[in-house]
Amino acid sequence: MQYPTTVTAPTFEHHRHALGIGEPAPRLSWRTLTDEPDWTQRAYRVRIAGADGAILADTGRTPGAESVLVPWPGPPLVSRDRATVRVRVWGGADDTPSPWSEPANVETGLLDPADWSASFVTPDTGDDEGALPAALLRRDFRIDADIASARLYTTGLGVYETEINGVRVGDEVLEPGWSSYHHRLRHRTHDVTALLRPGPNTIGALLGEGWYTGRLGWDGGSRHHYGRRRALLAQLELHHTDGTVRTVVTDSAWHRATGPVLRSELYDGEHYDACLEREGWSRPGHDTRGWSRVSELPPPTARITAPTGPPVRRTRTVPVREVLTTPSGRTVADFGQNLVGRLRIRVTGTAGHTVTLRHAEVLEHGEIAVRPLRRAAATDTYVLRGTGKPETWEPRFTFHGFRYAEFDGWPGPFDEAAVEAVVLHTDLERTGWFDSSDATVNRFHENVVHSLLGNFVDLPTDCPQRDERMGWTGDIAVFAPTAAFLYRCTGMLTGWLRDLAAEQLARPDGSVPLVVPDILDPPMGGQPHALWGDAAVLVPWALYRETGDPELLRTQYPSMTAWIACASGHGAEGGGLWRDPDQLGDWLDPGAPPDDPAAARTDAGLVALAHLVHSTDLLADIGELLDEKDDAARHRALAARLRGAFADEFVTPAGRLSSDSQTAYALALCFGLFPEEAQRRHAGERLAHLVRRAGFRIATGFAGTPLICEALCLAGHAPLAHRMIAERHCPSWLYPVTMGATTIWERWDSMLPDGSVNPGQMTSFNHYALGSVADWLHRTVAGLAAAAPGWRRIMVAPTPGGTLTRAWAAHLTPYGRAEAGWRIEGATLVVEVLVPPGARADIHLPGGGAPLTRGAGRHVFEVPHVADGRRATVTGHPFVAGSDEDCGCGSLGPGAATPPCDPRAGGGDTRPRPGNAGPG
Ligand code: BGC
User: Fold this and answer.
1) 586 lines ligand 1 (CB under 6 A)
2) Residue 637: enclosing H or E segment and its boundaries?
3) Predicted pLDDT at 238
């Protein structure tokens, strides 16, 4: 039987769209769509055509199964090159050819500094201390020849929007985003052909402060981290039909003025006076009296580079769900979802009337709770123009984290239909999904997704609402595996990793900044911090596991080795024993007092050395992978020494740890830190005991949270992990959901059970770190994981348990959609697996036995599910919190993967685990 087989248009490197990329030889990936069972690719053919249609490369039929990151088969591209790529494949039982794919276009940006003839132009003198109004910049020009195509290349010091002839260029928000401006400045490429016309034309830009000059940092932060003068670099290249090219660039011929945006800051919000609008300012014929010339700036030292990931965009709008009148009589709109973005309003009123919008994530005592915002005003004001017609407004250069907005000064009765929330984030492709029979667990998972999006506003941040919003390295270090499953974020994160490396390698000791881009002043920024610094290894590793791309490891290799050298040489004792009192350790352990989030029950030195061993293990593996044999051997030996030091310092001969805590055991079990098997078994039982004793409540902070469930499974206590996930009392993963959370909170108890906001400073309602357990839901509960980096080999190993009667995960792998799900139907456990074309799955069915290997297609298995006495009672939450006698395991019974929980038994799940923690 012949199955229709088609191929997706190829993608380039890790880009979603390939206009303005920086790679001269972008690797190609494609996916095959076919229903043919067991389909694998036998050969492919790639054809590359140039902008003029001439064939630049044709591989002919090339035997091979490669379809992911296939080397560019054509001549290297230079700046501005355009090419069209098509692919076809042969495969399946009959070696059936596919038709050619749809064409995919790729175009490079400006790859060489010499490509820029534009100058940075600034509207600023550099003398201002306070917040600056956004500047309008403009220039008129004429077009006297027919245009074949036109490109606008831009970057800036600040944030900007460009316009041509009164029309907004592109749909990016907060362009060019936040990179480590001292080192890297990203430019964007826009196709502006359709915006130009013969005769007079105008190009303009609105230039705001953003991260460049605006206030940044905690404790009030400070302005001018990067400089005092904002600037724009714009180069418009007009390609005429006769082959000639004309360039319109930023230079001293541009004019500047101020307009209606009187202040726009990331933390504090925007103040817009519509009476100051300059009608038609970016159109030809605008009266430029009162405008003055810009100044040219010397080029910054940073390298101007093409982006590796997508920009921030508006991705959806959310209507008002409910309008509330607070006890103090204020009008508050509830959007039903804690989100990141800003409001768009439509108002009619008299000139000069002001509407004020304040934003907050939660209500406290019925009023918007702004204390957690610390010193971020998060307030936008709009002064009406008063034309008599509805005026529509959305701030431009700010964003807020909010679910509630308070309106002051709304003219007339508040009109909820005239308000919507505009959601902003890096425009990533969704690739991961999870569902189960427990609606609360599902809502928790949805909250993880929302927190990911809210904190992926161009870079991975800690939180989106208060006076921080920085690239805290530790947060993404623990969240990267979850993020890589849920969204295609490799492009975005590899760019951020380049900044991390640039910042780190500029430091004499190779320490990784706590935040990237680094804006913290010493001493906070100065010294190495475990886990936060381990982001240098853990984030690339997570991306490598997702993509199988060794090049991203190669690029980060100097950064990884520098971090391990720094961390292992650290401390007066050497040997990697970190004794600094200033480690962040298991940050936000629920037992830590509100005003001291680092005061965890787990010794920070233990957390630090455990991570150092783990990162050194990974680095040794990476060295082998990259054929850096000497390094690999050196790091292997170092890891062995550090393991010894860990055991000497923290492990008793019986297998207890000096910190008798969930986090300590989770780290040591997942990172393989027990010299003896007997110690490991003992530690697994001790962990189970601690979990039971805690009444299945969580007792981990940033360090232990991603690992605790995995550790319980490794120790043969999967039912306890299920039980912890199902827990609803505080602290637990589901407690916030029971309190109405729609995002992941920074603290286990950001909102206290009485509805008041935690008094601690660190109280955001949108921090993804504690959501990192979603990785365990995907890989272990649903059982869908990459068996080897890149997903060509998939591991399906479902772990039914607890109160769940079904669970399911799906992932858009580089080969196509994979799924793993299970459901209990009476006495039968049905396991369903979808394997994408070109991949194979090793399927470990609950109940043991050798794994089954299956190729492309949907596969359904049925195994006995014996509802023993215990399981039959597992509806709701029958377990006695705090009882050491009741294992609370909701055991799977005979035939299940995990034996019924016996506190004394060392037993365990002997199936291989697709750990994100362990090497390989
Ligand atoms: C951030 C955290 C971060 C921590 C470390 C906080 O202010 O919000 O997420 O990792 O500081 O000190």
Assistant:
1) no
2) helix 629-650
3) 98
Residues 6+ apart with CB under 8 A from 873: none
116-260+278-305 is classed in which CATH architecture? Sandwich (2.60)
DSSP 597-621: TT--SS-HHHHHHHHHHHHHHHHHH
Question: 235 or 908, which is more confident?
Answer: 235
Residue 522: per-residue pLDDT: 64
pLDDT above 50 (res 885): no
Q: Which CATH number is 5-108 given?
A: 2.60.40.10
Q: Would you identify the CATH topology of the domain 312-409+418-426?
A: Jelly Rolls (2.60.120)
Pick the atom of ligand 1 nearest to 218's CA.
Answer: 7
Whether 541 and 620 have beta carbons less than 8 Å apart is answered as: no
The yes-or-no verdict on residue 917 having pLDDT over 60 is no
Calculate how far, in angstroms, residue 216's C-alpha sits from the geometric centre of ligand 1: 14
Residue 112's alpha-carbon distances to 140, 304, 307, 731, in angstroms, are: 27, 8, 14, 53
Domain 432-782 has CATH 1.50.10.10: yes
β-sheet bridge partners, residue 41: 91
Contacts of 464 (CB under 8 A, 6+ apart): 340, 399, 400, 401, 454, 455, 457, 766
* 890 vs 163 pLDDT, higher one: 163
- Residue limits of CATH 2.60.120.260 in the chain: 116-260+278-305, 312-409+418-426
**Structure tokens belonging to residue 535:** 């982001």
The SS3 of residue 645 is: helix
584 touches ligand 1 (CB under 6 Å):
yes
CA geometry: angle 124, 126, 127, nearest 5 deg: 115
Q: Is the pLDDT of residue 906 over 90?
A: no
pLDDT at 881: 28
Protein fold of 794-825+828-864: Maltose phosphorylase, domain 3 (2.60.420)
- Give CATH 2.60.420.10 domain extents, the chain: 794-825+828-864
pTM of the model: 0.94
Is 746 a residue of the active site? yes
Residues 6+ apart with CB under 8 A from 583: 529, 530, 598, 604, 605, 607, 608
Ligand 1 centroid to residue 686 C-alpha, Å: 30
Q: What percentage of the chain has pLDDT greater than the value 90? A: 88
495 lines ligand 1 (CB under 6 A): no
- pLDDT band at 524, cuts 50/70/90? low
Kind of pairing, strands 391-393 and 331-347? antiparallel
Ligand 1 pocket test: which of 472, 607, 766 has the largest number of ligand atoms within 8 Å of its C-beta? 472
Tens of pLDDT, residues 755-787: 999 988 888 999 999 999 999 999 999 999 999
CA separation for the pair 36, 3 (Å, rounded): 6
| Mean pLDDT, residues 262-266 | 96
Active-site option among 361, 468, 628, 685: 468
Task: Quick: pLDDT tens for 816-839.
Answer: 999 999 999 999 999 999 999 999
* Nearest CA among 787, 799, 798 for reference residue 841: 787
Q: What is the DSSP letter of 634?
A: H
Mutate to test the pocket of ligand 1, among 462, 596, 743, 766 (most ligand atoms within 8 A of CB): 462
The three-class DSSP label of residue 535 is: helix
Q: What is the location of CATH 2.60.40.10 in the chain?
A: 5-108
Measured from the CB, is residue 475 less than 6 Å from ligand 1?
yes
What is the per-residue pLDDT across 408-428, written as a single tens digit (0 to 9) for each? 999 999 999 999 999 999 999
Q: Which of 518, 519, 538, 587 to mutate to test the pocket of ligand 1 (most atoms within 8 A of CB)?
A: 587
Q: Tell me the C-alpha distance between 619 and 614, whole Å.
A: 9
Atom 3 (ligand 1) nearest CA: 472
Ordered DSSP codes for 816-854: EEEEEEEEEETTEEEEEEEE-TT-EEEE--TT-SSPEEE
